Amino acid sequence: METIAPTPTHCPYCALQCGMNVTPLAAGGVEVSERADFPVNRGALCGKGRTAAEVLSPAVRLTSPLVRSGGRLVEASWTAALDLVAERLGGTRARYGADALGVFGGGGLTNEKAYTLGKFARVVLGTSQIDYNGRFCMSSAAAAGTRAFGLDRGLPFPLEDIPRTGCVILVGSNLAETMPPSLRFLTELRANGGTLIVVDPRRTRTAEQADLHLAPRPGTDLALALGLLHLVVTEGRTDEEFIRERTTGWDAARAAAMAHWPEQVERITGVSVPLLREAVRLFCAPESAMVLTARGPEQQSKGTDTVGAWIDLCLATGRAGRPLSGYGCLTGQGNGQGGREHGQKADQLPGYRKLDDPDARRHVAGVWGVDPDTLPGPGRSAYELLDALGTDIRALLLMGSNPVVSAPRAAHVEERLRALDFLAVADVVLSETAELADVVLPVTQWAEETGTTTSLEGRVLLRRQAVTAPPGVRGDLYVLHELAARLGVEKGFPADPEEVFAELRRASAGGPADYSGITYRRLAEGTGVFWPCPQDTDEGVHPGTPRLFLDRFATPDGRARFAAVTHRATAEEPDAAYPLLLTTGRVVSQYQSGAQTRRVAELNAAAPGPFVELHPRLAARLGAAEGDALAVVSRRGRAVAPARITDTIRPDTVFMPFHWPGEGRANTLTNPALDPTSRMPEFKSCAVRVEVVGPPE
Ligand SMILES: Nc1nc2c(c(=O)[nH]1)N[C@H]1C(S)=C(S)[C@@H](COP(=O)(O)OP(=O)(O)OC[C@H]3O[C@@H](n4cnc5c(=O)[nH]c(N)nc54)[C@H](O)[C@@H]3O)O[C@H]1N2
Ligand SMILES: Nc1nc2c(c(=O)[nH]1)N[C@H]1C(S)=C(S)[C@@H](COP(=O)(O)OP(=O)(O)OC[C@H]3O[C@@H](n4cnc5c(=O)[nH]c(N)nc54)[C@H](O)[C@@H]3O)O[C@H]1N2
Ligand code: SF4
Ligand SMILES: [Mo]
Fold first, then answer.
1. Which of 103, 240, 512, 649 is the most buried (most CB within 10 A)?
2. Where in the chain is the domain with CATH 3.40.50.740?
3. Bridge partner residues of 583 (DSSP)
4. pLDDT tens, 367-413?
């Protein structure tokens, strides 16, 4: 029998983009196996990556377009489905204008798809109303990074630098569950004599690895960072030479920090002054140190200022723009980094250019062959866009997100989706959002198509096609190609990813995220290329840029900018009616809205459903026993899930994972209060009360 060689590629899920080999089996099915040559995971995979091929099975995925008829979704031909989408989008535009058309994308889409989706919205539909789920992910860190350094690349250094630094403060990241193979970098750090500080209201599996665990009240990281900065100043641990040579704005930042007394910070955060002092000592003692943030401090209505305060701590101590030192954000989705660079964001053009910058508009319009004046301006942010469905926005094209489960105040978002005149969803499975659609387009997945992603390190990678998609399924690029043609744009929307990438290179050339020197061939031959990577010059091939900011920051004057921020309360503090704080997050065996992982038996067995994590003291006060059905009630709604009692959480806080729809949907409760700069919703804290509904079922 013919043996089929494995294809080296990358995982469909998170931003670590672990390398894996994928082989179609002669007997049917697809095997995922170890690929040791990729330096990030060196063969290791988490359970999600290991079982990813199960979602390729026609048993769990969509294999035919669906069109709503008589209230039900029924199978239809591709021609009929695409005709209908084009007709309804065109009709809505004719009646209400281009901005009545919305487009919603995802950070899991490849660079080619994200680029094409942004171009499709602006060139074919002519709408400004496009945004994507990355707004819910790392937008606060992106805004703070851009403000401080003039450039947002999640990690300005490769993960392999972590074991060689002196101290890492990991703020609101549970990477033991969210990126398991990366835990190795922290273990190696400690084996090398470095120290790890974890900041998390819960003693997570990640926090258990730490030398020091600080457990602040949710939503108080800003005060915590300022308290540490205060101690850095009063203990004389600032790096005056670095501040003088490489930064601006220290006087204001120093004054802001001095206004946050350690005792006052202790009262706000619940972290004692001796622990604050110990953290400062561990962070400042070694030659080098890093601060890494994830969703804990970022998904707050003050996420941008919060990350700004952590960056200020790095700048004041000279822990930025130097080898083995710096601030980084651990981006989340498979293409969470690339997805935020190439134009599916409301205010953005490819290459991380700004939509309101006349030079950027001219450059990109030139590549697209259109008049810059025809490009719409910036649109609404993700939640604001979803909130406008059925009123200002009458028809929506959604690709790569499942907001019925993942958006804040989800019952309201679900109602807005139902209020649309027309909803088209491209997905690989019938997600909860696809269930509401008028047309569902079944698309190919990671192992069935080729495309690039950019990992949390800023490393551009090639995902290669390894298997053939079932008949009846088409690519997202094909969908956009066909819709563009039906809406009168015959050229400029190729369905071939390499052709799209060639154009993306030109569109990004000279921009902050410059991909122009990267080719599929280069990516196929190695283990990825770090952007910026400008076009080859006479001096030769540009090697890419694993480490940023070592000589200068990307600001106009080359200096990093202090943020100088002040602590403020969360948008919804507990009161008599809602006395507790709810925070939300993830478990290792489910991914995001669960659309994909809830279809894998092994993962469901490991993580079968939602739960409410609470402290034994709180449980005793409520009279709740392990497994009891608890109702968690916020001003937005009510969710019911079993109690999981553990002393690893603060007694004033309850935690729910957000991976499930229905009665236990955490996002029924969450508060869509937005950060004023990044427009990030406050997923990480809202006020709730908890009631015992009854004994376990
Ligand atoms: N298994 C799994 N892995 C994933 C994903 C998944 O859904 N499942 N999703 C991927 C994506 S898109 C992302 S964005 C990443 C997210 O990766 P993480 O950021 O690691 O994930 P979360 O669980 O959302 O949040 C991390 C921690 O923040 C803590 N936290 C809650 N509130 C606060 C607070 O106010 N302050 C602080 N400091 N901490 C707080 C929570 O207790 C939690 O342990 O994971 C990626 N990897
Ligand atoms: N309460 C709470 N809510 C949260 C968070 C939290 O911490 N707490 N975290 C937020 C964060 S960080 C994120 S990133 C969001 C994520 O939440 P979502 O945006 O809902 O992300 P996914 O569940 O990954 O949805 C991706 C959808 O696209 C489909 N899909 C996968 N690949 C492709 C493709 O190539 N093409 C197309 N067309 N479809 C594809 C999948 O099947 C799935 O239905 O959730 C946010 N919501
Ligand atoms: S850690 Fe992330 S990239 Fe790696 S196997 Fe798991 S889900 Fe996939
Ligand atoms: Mo995310």
1. 103
2. 66-136+339-452+460-495
3. 655
4. 999 999 999 999 999 999 999 999 999 999 999 999 999 999 999 99
Domain span(s) for CATH 2.40.40.20 in the chain: 580-694
Residue nearest to ligand 1 atom 8, measured at CA? 591
Q: Whose CA is nearest to atom 31 of ligand 1?
A: 296
Q: What is the pLDDT of residues 177-187, one digit of tens each?
A: 999 999 999 99
Alpha carbon of 286 to those of 92, 119, 322, 387: distances in Å? 61, 47, 13, 48
Question: Which of 330, 406, 450 is the pocket-test mutation for ligand 2 (most atoms within 8 Å of CB)?
Answer: 406
E strand spans, 260-342: 290-293, 326-329
Which residue has the CA at smallest separation from atom 47 of ligand 1? 178
pLDDT tier, 480 (very low <50, low <70, confident <90, very high otherwise): very high
| CB of 105 closer than 8 Å to CB of 357 | no
Name the segment(s) of the chain with CATH classification 3.40.228.10: 155-329
**Residue 101 dihedral angles phi and psi, to the nearest 5°:** -100, 130
- In this prediction, residue 2 carries a pLDDT of 54
Q: Is the CB of 173 under 6 A from ligand 2?
A: no
**Where in 605-685 does DSSP place strands (E)?**
612-614, 629-634, 637-645, 653-657, 671-674, 681-682
Strands 195-199 and 167-171: parallel
The per-residue pLDDT for range 79-89, each reduced to its tens digit, is: 999 999 999 99
Query: What per-residue string of b and e applies to 227-261 under the rule 16 or more CB within 10 Å gives b?
Result: bbbbbbeeeebbbeebbeebbbbbeebbebbeebe
Query: What is the C-alpha to C-alpha distance for residues 666 and 686, in angstroms, rounded to an integer?
Result: 11
**Confidence check: pLDDT of 537 > 90:** no
- Rounded to the nearest integer, the mean pLDDT of the chain is 97
Q: Which of 85, 174, 402 to mutate to test the pocket of ligand 2 (most atoms within 8 A of CB)?
A: 402
Q: Ligand 3 — pocket residues by CB below 6 A?
A: 11, 13-14, 16-18, 41, 45-46, 48-49, 179-181
| 580-694 CATH, one of 2.40.40.20, 1.10.10.10, 2.130.10.10, 3.90.870.10 | 2.40.40.20
Distance 397 CA to ligand 2 centre (A): 15
The fold of 155-329 is Dimethylsulfoxide Reductase; domain 2 (3.40.228)
Interaxial angle between packed helices 111-119 and 497-508, expressed in degrees from 0 to 180 and rounded to the nearest 10: 70
Parts of the chain belonging to CATH 2.20.25.90: 7-56
Pick left, alpha or beta for residue 70 (phi over 0 → left; psi -120 to 50 → alpha; otherwise beta): left
Ligand nearest to the CA of 178: 1
Q: State the burial class of residue 290 (Cβ atoms within 10 Å of its Cβ: 0-12, 13-18, 19+).
A: buried
CATH superfamily for domain 7-56? ADC-like domains (2.20.25.90)
Is residue 333 lining ligand 1, measured as CB closer than 6 Å? Answer: yes
Q: Is 536 a residue whose pLDDT tops 90?
A: no
If you take atom 29 of ligand 2, which residue's CA is the nearest one?
Answer: 400
Q: Could you tell me the fold of the domain covering 66-136+339-452+460-495?
A: Rossmann fold (3.40.50)
CA proximity to 138, closest of 321, 348, 293: 293
Amino acid (one-letter) located at 432? E
Q: Round to the nearest angstrom and report the end-to-end CA distance of the chain.
A: 51
Contacts of 390 (CB under 8 A, 6+ apart): 416, 417, 418, 419, 420, 421
Ligand 1 center from residue 364 Cα (angstroms): 35
